[in-house]
Amino acid sequence: MIEHHVRVHPSADRLPREDQLAWKLASVATGTEELAAESAAMAVNRLIDNASVAVASLPRRPVAVARAQATAHPAAEPGASVFGARGRVSPEWAAWANGTAVRELDFHDTYLAADYSHPGDNIPPLLAVAQHTGRTGADLLRAIVAAYEVHVALVKGICLHKHRIDHVAHLGAATACGLGALLRLPTETVYQAVQQTVHTTTATRQSRKGEISSWKAYAPAFAGKAAIEAVDRAMRGETSPSPIYEGEDGFLAWLLDGPESEYGVLLPAPGEPRRAILDTYTKEHSAEYQAQAIIDLARRLREKTGPLERVRSVVLHTSHHTHQVIGSGAMDPQKYDPTASRETLDHSVPYIFAVALEDGTWHHERSYAPERARRPRTVELWRRITTVEDPEWTRRYHDPDPDRRAFGGRAVITLEDGSVIEDELAVADAHPAGARPFDRPAYAGKFRTLAEGVVTRAAQDEFLHTAERLAQLSAADLDGLFPAVDTEAVAAYDATLPKGLF
């Protein structure tokens, strides 16, 4: 790996484009060729994972709205498919609808380092453009691995959250790079597309603060749509704000650490295998990733606490990120509000710990149902749970060794008689370093569980067989990556939505 030092330059420097971060990211994409077998296999896992959560989210309102917007933009041949809909639409709109479906349940893969990310959000726009342009499964595999490589590098090297910039700014750049790899575009074209995408997809983190709205699902879909449009413009010869990262009025100087900004971004050397996808991990539970280990810990502690009416207080000792983003350190009263939105509750670790402690399980719908959140005994327990930052957990969260990195915490439960119960868990059971790391059968099992009642058993078998042969798929075979669902039932639901402009 090569560490690239990125800092602000005045316009007078005329920084050569080959020395700019956007060019270096583009070069990684256009230089992605032979894939490591492990990386290709993990890309298949993530494609299965995305389909799992997409089909489970089809009847949810934000997904239905995005689908309705997309199907109002039918494409001339060939176009791209939309989960739950017949026909083809323009690829940027397919990316919009499918990206929203993948993200809605907060239930697919994650990578946490200096910043946050859901690298699986790259897949919907890549798949849409692959269908539209007649690319093969091998082309799509190369694109996915390239996008993950760029995404993970940015998340490791550049923190956005500290400056309250939403993490989709890194996603947009990665998707543009993945599209460049998919289409085998010149580095110059990808460089321009990366800069356009970063410029147009930078937004604040208010989308994940206070009363969290459905935009949380749309934000990555918007980035994917914007990346496709940027690539289209760049292919037509249009240029971009440059240098987008290093410029004196650019990304680093005014949105991040200021004129004295300096970052180190690790990227593979020419010819080096692209393995960053192997550093990422999926979710067993439908909740913010930092809550995954906390859910598993609550299930384990349930056997020790006895009647929960005896609990006087619970303090979760955890990392800075967990405390500040999904814990009481966020200072969001909405995180303790029984009438809060689902999007808010899945970013409230006190709520999540309370429900997991009571139920001993977690469900992507039942655990967030309004009647579940408003249960008086749950609310009483929930409001006794707080978080604190523990410097040791923060250090472990950022440990450079992925085998030692920890995203969990330590729970201290004080009972009414003054006795204390303590336990801790570093990583979720499904994490690569956890008690039950996810493997191909686990991904397939997750798909079957979430597709139950939506996709017939025969259609489930057909989808899994197709996905597992991704490297051998022809362009026409990519249609099989969309599991067959009852589109009439979906359309009937869509018909109940209010009408918009399209």
Automatic annotation (TrEMBL):
Residues 322-341 are annotated as: Disordered. PANTHER family: 2-METHYLCITRATE DEHYDRATASE (PTHR16943:SF8), 2-METHYLCITRATE DEHYDRATASE-RELATED (PTHR16943). The lineage of its organism: Bacteria, Bacillati, Actinomycetota, Actinomycetes, Kitasatosporales. Residues 285-470 form the MmgE/PrpD C-terminal domain. Residues 21-262 form the MmgE/PrpD N-terminal domain. Belongs to the PrpD family. It holds the Pfam family MmgE_PrpD_C. This is 2-methylcitrate dehydratase. It comes from the Bacteria.
